[in-house]
Specification:
The structure is a single chain. This protein has helices at residues 29-38, 88-104, 173-187, 194-200, and strands spanning 19-26, 45-52, 70-77, 109-111, 115-118, 121-131, 136-144, 208-212, 218-225, 231-235, 238-242, 246-249. The protein is globular. Helix 1 links the parallel strand 1 and strand 2 (45-52). By secondary structure, the chain is an alpha+beta fold. It folds into 2 domains: 4-200, 2-Layer Sandwich (BirA Bifunctional Protein, domain 2); 208-249, Roll (SH3 type barrels). The chain is built from 4 helices and 12 strands.
Length: 251
């Protein structure tokens, strides 16, 4: 596992204040960060693990975390007072998409609300969790960098993919983690820039999708996203605006 100092050349602006700790193994970077906050740790700080034994995904799902082939990270921070919390996950998607494009020349798409896709396969997931009193945010990211010999033990709602066809000779994770954190914290200072950038890289715009997790399932055409990050769907029964849920391509 790389040392925390490996991120230093890539941390800029507000991200320079982040205390980074790296681990060979954690149950979950998000779970560990939550424990650290409860024990009095002062944000901003980031935990990065080489592998997770109980990686946490959205809606209580497990996040597949094979050793050395992925980047598993959670950053704990106090969000800017002027930033709507609904924009945290879109901002993370935008920053991660940009960091991947810059480093690898790979163009991913952002699937509402928290995944990155490459050629229709999931290559990254994002999970933002609020910890109140005082308000703190745990932002977890899991990125599939290269193929692994291991396989998921629980069902995955999307086919898994990787950013790279094979593991590179030099570990790309310090640069990716540092660039993502720097881009993310810079973006938080300009909320008006988040959704225009999100729309430019959104997956499935104009296509028929099925929305679940926001009441009764609904199918229709994905027509856009509002300035607060909500999905906009046109169905046979009218328009739907959803702030939570999940989408898949309609059958």
């Amino acid at each position: 596992m790389f040392a925390p100092s490996a991120l230093t050349p890539w941390l800029h602006g507000d991200a320079e204040a982040i205390t980074v700790t790296t681990y060979p193994t954690l149950d979950s970077t998000s779970t560990a960060a939550r424990r650290a906050l409860a024990a009095g740790a002062t944000p901003p700080f980031a935990f990065i693990a080489d592998t997770q034994t109980a990686g946490v995904g959205r809606r209580g799902k497990r996040f597949f975390s094979p050793a050395t082939t992925g980047l598993y990270m959670t950053v704990a921070f106090a969000p800017p007072a002027a930033l709507p919390l609904e924009l945290l996950t879109p901002a993370a998607g935008v920053a991660l998409q940009a960091a991947i494009q810059h480093q690898f020349g790979v163009t991913t798409q952002i699937k509402w609300v928290n995944d990155l896709l490459l050629a229709g396969h999931k290559v990254a997931g994002i999970l933002a969790e609020a910890v109140p009193a005082p308000m703190r945010v745990l932002l977890g990211t899991g990125i599939n960098l290269a193929p692994s010999a291991a396989s998921p033990t629980t069902p995955i709602d999307l086919p898994l993919g990787t950013l790279l066809p094979t593991a590179p000779a030099t570990d790309p994770r310090p640069q990716l983690a540092g660039t993502f954190l720097s881009d993310f914290f810079t973006l938080l200072q300009t909320p008006a820039a988040i959704m225009p950038a999100y729309r430019a890289h959104a997956a499935w715009l104009g296509e028929r999708v099925t929305l679940t997790g926001a009441g009764a399932p609904a199918s229709g055409r994905l027509v856009g996203f509002s300035d607060d990050g909500a999905l906009q769907l046109t169905t046979a029964n009218g328009s739907i605006t959803a702030h939570t849920g999940s989408i898949r391509r309609a059958d």
